[in-house]
Amino acid sequence: MARDQVRVVVTGLGATTPLGGDVGSTWSALLAGRSGIDTLTQDWVDTVPVKFAGVAAVDPAEVLPRPEMRRLDRAEQFALIAAREAWQDAGAPKVDGERLGVVVGSGIGGITTILAAYDTYREKGWNRLSPFTVPMLMPNGSAGWISIDLGARAGAHAAASACATGAESIGYAIDMIRSGRADVVVAGGTEAAIHPLNVASFAAMRAMSTRNDEPQRASRPFDKGRDGFVLGEGAGILVLESEEHARARGARVYAVAAGAGYTSDGHHISAPEPSGVGGQQAMQFAIRDAGLDPSDIIHVNAHATSTPIGDEIETHAIKEAIGGHPLVTATKSLTGHLLGGAGGIESVFTALTLHERIVPATANLDDPADGIEVEIVSGEPRKLPGGDLAAINNSFGFGGHNVAIAFTTH
Amino acid sequence: MAITEQAILDGLGKIINEITGIPASEVTPEKNFVDDLDIDSLSMVEIAVAAQDEFDVEIPDDQLKNLKTVKDVITFIQG
């Protein structure tokens, strides 16, 4: 380690995604190469150029009681479901509420609530709005609900950095534990934005794939034929814990959350800076923060969204920051892009990749684009060797946010 | 024809169950929303919003705060 500081470990994982309603089903679908993307059946698809998405495999209504369904925005529902799974997975640790924190954000917030509430307001008037409209639309709602559910009183925070939100939340959680503010922090990201206005708005940026005739082939990071990202929804949540606290209670440890690196491009509100230096430095800072050497990083779960502009730049950044040796994968090829949830679920995947020593394959990589400078795992998952391993999860967001989280096996 | 007390009680039971998870069978006329059913002020607003739609009545805010028991709501709806 670079500094004498508290080590943070991952002791619980939770997820609800287009691939499955929990971590187990999501992870096995990912390793099997099953896509979570499908054609949308709503009438509104006729009004937008994109007619498919990665809808959550298990609807929250199948999991949550009706009173909670009424009071929580869909993004909050995903977050609460994933947080409860992660908490149980961690063995429901006995921890003083004053030592338990939450950092869970969303890229967009309760957008479906806002839009439905506006319809209600216009059609029926203000006094027909749910009194929970504000707590449903506020982007910190998930953090608040999880803190209530778990009795967490060390602070509940909500990062907002678009598609870097989930990773940024995990970075903040590491800092909360290192700084002594908490022993255990529940952290990650969530999103529920499959709504015609979102689809139309991303389509207006020309950012989305329109491969409507082959939805499961549409998310194809690093491939020459890629034409945009595919919208997904869901949440990924981790329980992070000081190593001392985890060891004292004999907790299972998936991985060490060894460090975080952040930069901002200061360049363009949505386009990546062409040299990739922002992403490169975020990885370098994460490696340094973790006390690692670039040669230690054997795997990168790339941000790689399948937009034409970003994927090659990221491989260049990986090559510059780490070298040509890491095995890189883009799990968005099967989950779609969970926006604010992406860094959460992809950190879950990175921790599992180290724990189970297997790298999930990137789907749909038929014809790698020119300018891919690193090795992409495609076709079949790749086994990792024994011994001490380290990996990085990258997440980049509109606004120029670059976040890299480093995980290690030991 | 005016709606019967029993029909209102059944409708309220269904609404309160939907909103709070309290079994409809526990929603009886003498129950106080705060003391007996542990319903907070936001949930009371939710119930009022749903009741207004269900029974086609207006419940103004200054009336809502006077509706302490299930019976109070039934009486109000019966007008």
From TrEMBL, chain A:
Pfam families, A to Z: ketoacyl-synt, Ketoacyl-synt_C
Keywords of the record: Acyltransferase, Fatty acid biosynthesis, Fatty acid metabolism, Lipid biosynthesis, Lipid metabolism, Transferase
Signal sequence residues: none
CDD domains on file: KAS_I_II (cd00834)
Gene Ontology MF: a single term: 3-oxoacyl-[acyl-carrier-protein] synthase activity
EC number(s) reported in the record: 2.3.1.179
Domain of life: Bacteria
Function statement: Involved in the type II fatty acid elongation cycle. Catalyzes the elongation of a wide range of acyl-ACP by the addition of two carbons from malonyl-ACP to an acyl acceptor. Can efficiently catalyze the conversion of palmitoleoyl-ACP (cis-hexadec-9-enoyl-ACP) to cis-vaccenoyl-ACP (cis-octadec-11-enoyl-ACP), an essential step in the thermal regulation of fatty acid composition.
Name assigned to this protein: 3-oxoacyl-[acyl-carrier-protein] synthase 2
UniProtKB/TrEMBL annotation, chain B:
Gene Ontology biological process terms from the UniProt entry: lipid A biosynthetic process
Keyword vocabulary terms for this entry: Cytoplasm, Fatty acid biosynthesis, Fatty acid metabolism, Lipid biosynthesis, Lipid metabolism, Phosphopantetheine, Phosphoprotein
Official protein name in the record: Acyl carrier protein
UniProt family annotation: Belongs to the acyl carrier protein (ACP) family.
GO cellular component, one term: cytosol
Modification O-(pantetheine 4'-phosphoryl)serine occurs at: 41
Domain Carrier per the UniProt entry, residue ranges: 6-79
Function of the molecule: Carrier of the growing fatty acid chain in fatty acid biosynthesis.
A Pfam short name: PP-binding
Main location: cytoplasm
Pathway membership, UniProt: Lipid metabolism; fatty acid biosynthesis
Organism from which the protein derives: Spongiactinospora gelatinilytica
A single GO molecular function term of this UniProt record: acyl carrier activity
Post-translational modification: 4'-phosphopantetheine is transferred from CoA to a specific serine of apo-ACP by AcpS. This modification is essential for activity because fatty acids are bound in thioester linkage to the sulfhydryl of the prosthetic group.
UniProt superkingdom: Bacteria
Xref: PANTHER family: ACYL CARRIER PROTEIN, CARRIER DOMAIN-CONTAINING PROTEIN
Subcellular location: Cytoplasm
